[in-house]
Prior knowledge:
The chain has helices at 2-17, 19-26, 62-70, 81-84, 90-105, 109-117, 122-128; strands at 40-44, 57-61. By secondary structure, it is mainly alpha-helical. The protein is globular, with a radius of gyration of 15 Å.
Amino acid sequence: MARGLDKHNARIDALNMLGRDLARRSRSKCELCETGSVSLKPLEITPIPEEPELDHTLFICEECRQGIESGKPDQKRWRFLESVIWSETPVIQVAAVRVTRILQQQGVDWAATLMDTVYLSPEIEEWLGLPFTHK
């Protein structure tokens, strides 16, 4: 049990080491909803590399984290995805598309329309074939 906890804590420490780079990339705002002046934490997006990597990590607020982890995002709150889905940062675009697809499956009209218009590179399409996050 202690070995698993040590491994978990080491991963958290490694993620926290990305903090400065994540803050710089995000301009200290949530990388999804762009809310500033709130606590931001890293969230790894699958596939999870052996060691934490900036390219597979989002810097997001607690509200966005809860929407992602619950799998039940509030359609009104997540309307910001209409602009975020066009991000040039792959990990942000992948997260935006995954949440938009969840909303589309829930029958949200604007999410379905958005998915009809978004262009995804082959690399992003391949990345999207994986589950959202690793629990």
